[in-house]
Design brief:
Helices cover 0% and strands 50% of the residues. By secondary structure, the chain is mainly β. Strands 2, 4, 5, 6, 9, 10 and 11 form a seven-stranded mixed β-sheet that branches. Strands 1-3-8-7 form a four-stranded antiparallel β-sheet, with no helix packed on it. Strand 5 and strand 6 form a beta hairpin.
Length: 119
């Protein structure tokens, strides 16, 4: 599964961005999906996850209430809506997919998209 993330950019604190993630040549309906991020000098961290059937979501405490993960009805694109952005949200954001419906391990990774939040 090849994942392509897009939508990053430069935004002021308090602003919003929506990241998108699409898989080339297939739908994403059979995979759990997630977003991770990595800031300079820090380890990659979990941001948000969506179960393969869309029935459940999970978020890091640092983004709860501000970020929303979702998938379009055609199950082609997964989104991360980011509101009330803070400078500490600055990082490279990666979309990822699990090995399948019943797998909890993220094994497919996109190339990352840079999000920069200015104060």
């Amino acid at each position: 599964v090849q994942l392509q993330a897009s939508g990053g950019g430069l935004v002021q604190a308090g602003g919003s961005l929506r990241l998108s993630c699409a898989a080339s040549g297939r739908t994403l309906g059979s995979y759990g999906m997630g977003w991770f991020r990595q800031a300079p000098g820090k380890e990659r961290e979990f941001v948000a996850g969506l179960s393969w059937n869309g029935g459940s979501t999970g978020y890091a405490d640092s983004v709860k209430g501000r970020f929303t993960i979702s998938r379009d009805n055609a199950k082609i694109t997964v989104y991360l809506q980011m509101n009330s952005l803070k400078p500490e949200d600055t990082a490279v954001y990666y979309c990822t997919a699990t090995g399948g419906k019943y797998s909890s391990e993220y094994i497919y990774w996109g190339q990352g998209t840079q999000v920069t939040v200015s104060s």
